């Protein structure tokens, strides 16, 4: 869209809108088609991320029970699993679907209330609007 953008994290509605955290528009009957499309695309991207973490935990099930690892070693263990997982994925190492059996997606506790409006960054709306324009220019899907 003619403007270089930084990387952003995807958040849900409880996160404050920041220029580095994209969150969906608040669902109501006043959303435009473009805003609905943005929310849909954000939701699809979020599901890709959830699936990637599910595959990571399934391939490296030690991540499901890190209680036998010291806190000092935990970051190294997680990083090693992520690196090895990415190497396996990049080289099309076969993924056994049976690994998924013990790794149900877990819902982490989330705040029940959205972040206060005072925490939101006015510049972030420009980033979200640019993303809306980009998604619109890409067509449906």
Automatic annotation (TrEMBL):
Residues 99-121 are annotated as: Disordered. It comes from the Eukaryota. GO terms for cellular component: nucleus. Residues 5-86 form the DDE Tnp4 domain. It is found in: Nucleus. Its cofactor is a divalent metal cation. The keyword Translocase does not apply. The keyword Isomerase does not apply. Keywords: Hydrolase, Metal-binding, Nuclease, Nucleus. InterPro entries: HARBI1-like, HARBI1_dom. GO terms for molecular function: hydrolase activity; metal ion binding; nuclease activity. Belongs to the HARBI1 family. This is ALP1 protein.
């Amino acid at each position: 869209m003619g403007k270089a953008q930084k990387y952003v994290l995807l958040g849900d509605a409880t996160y404050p809108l920041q220029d580095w955290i994209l969150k969906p528009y608040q669902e109501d009957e006043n959303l435009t088609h473009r805003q609905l499309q943005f929310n849909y695309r954000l939701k699809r991207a979020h599901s890709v991320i959830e699936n990637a973490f599910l595959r990571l935990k399934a391939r490296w099930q030690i991540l499901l029970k890190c209680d036998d690892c010291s806190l000092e070693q935990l970051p190294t263990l997680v990083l090693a699993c992520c690196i090895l997982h990415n190497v396996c994925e990049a080289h099309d190492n076969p993924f056994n679907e049976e690994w998924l059996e013990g790794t149900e997606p877990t819902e982490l506790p989330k705040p029940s209330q959205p972040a206060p409006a005072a925490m939101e960054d006015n510049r972030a709306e420009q980033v979200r609007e640019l993303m809306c324009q980009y998604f619109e220019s890409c067509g449906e899907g």
